[in-house]
Amino acid sequence: MTYPLNDHMIDALSASNPQQRLQAAMAIGTRAEPRDLDVLIARCRVEPDFFVRDMLTWALTRLPADDTIPRLIAELDSSQPQAISQSLHTLSKVGDVRAWPAMDPALIGTALIAHPDTEVVRSAWRATVALVPGENREELASALVTQLGRGDIEMQKSLSRAIVALGEDLVSVVDEKLHAEDDTVRAHAMATRDMFDDPDAGFAHALDAAKRVVALGSETTV
Question: What mean pLDDT is reported for the chain?
Fold first, then answer.
C-alpha cells in the first residue's frame, strides 16, 4: 500500500534529530496501521538510537501478529546484525510462541545463541528464554550452557540471567559444567549456580568469588 505524499510521520522516521524520530515512531505505533509494517522493519535495521529502536519495537507490537511475525522471522536471515538483534527483541516482546521454531537450537543449531555479534547473541538468549515452550526448557538450557565463559562480565551476567530464568529445576544442567576443563567456564558455571540459590545476589561478586575458588583449586592441583 502506498503512502500519501504528505505522510510526515514516515518522513520523520529518518530525520537527523533522534527526538523527531522517537515522536514519529510513537505516532506510527499509535495509529497502528498494517501498512506501516515494512517501513518500521526497514528502520529497525539502521536506527542508531536505543530509545528510538525501543519505540519502533513498541510500534510493531501494536500491529497484528499474523502480519508481523513472518516479517520478523525473515529478518533473522539478514546479513545485518542489528536487523537480527532487533527482530529477536521484538519477537520476544510480541510473545507469540509461533516464532519459537525459528530460533529453536534443536532445529537451527547454535546460529543465534552462539552468534559472533554480541548484541545478536544477547538478544537471542533473552528471546529464546521468553518464547521457549515448557517442554523444551531443558533442551534450551543444555544449549545455553555451551556458551558459559563467553565475553565480558556483562555478557556473562546476561547469559546467567537467561539460564536462571528457565527455572530452578534445571540447575543440574549448570552443575554439569562445574567440572569443565576451562577455568573461565567453571567460574561462570559456579556464579550461575549461585544465582539459582540467590537470584538477587550480585553477579560480579559471585563471579569474583567463583574465580577465587577456581584459582585455589588449580593451585592445589598443581
Answer: 91
Ramachandran region of residue 109, left (φ > 0), alpha (ψ -120 to 50) or beta?
Answer: left
Report long-range pairs for 174-181 (Cβ below 8 Å, ≥24 apart).
174/141, 174/145, 174/148, 176/145, 177/145, 177/148, 180/148, 180/149
Close Cβ partners of 162 (under 8 Å, ≥ 6 residues apart): 125, 126, 128, 129, 144
CA dist., res. 139 & res. 104, Å (int): 9
Q: Per-residue pLDDT tens for 34-53?
A: 999 999 999 999 999 999 99
Q: How far apart are CA 25 and CA 59, in angstroms?
A: 7
pLDDT at residue 210 in the model: 74
| Residues belonging to the chain | 222
Only one residue has cell 515512531, namely: 25
